[in-house]
Amino acid sequence: SNGEDEQNQLQKAKNIAISVKESQPEARCQDHAEEVANRLETAGFNTRIIRGFLKDIASDDTPRAGLHVWAEALVDGQWHRVEPSASSKQNAGDVVVSPDTPDSYNRSQA
Length: 110
Description:
Blueprint: H1 2-23, H2 29-42, E1 47-57, E2 63-75, E3 78-83, E4 96-99, E5 105-107
Antiparallel strand pairs: 1-2, 1-5, 2-3, 3-4
Helix pairs in contact: 1-2
């Protein structure tokens, strides 16, 4: 079914992000975004790189907006953020594959 195919595609994208994180654990978000986008394209995804502000929680629990760069993949008609460099406290160390929703970011034009 289409839903299963979407889940498979999202899992494939997540595996790519995991492999980038494992191979470049100390890389900056810019480098992660470019490498993830390259690998996603090689795997057949439509991709884009977004430059914007990621709402973040600092270690002392104060909200902050950090300049950030991330890759997105088009899956089943919707853009999904695919990134190994999630930096906010609540998902520190996580690989994120999530729908790109306008309220997640103060987005600047890429």
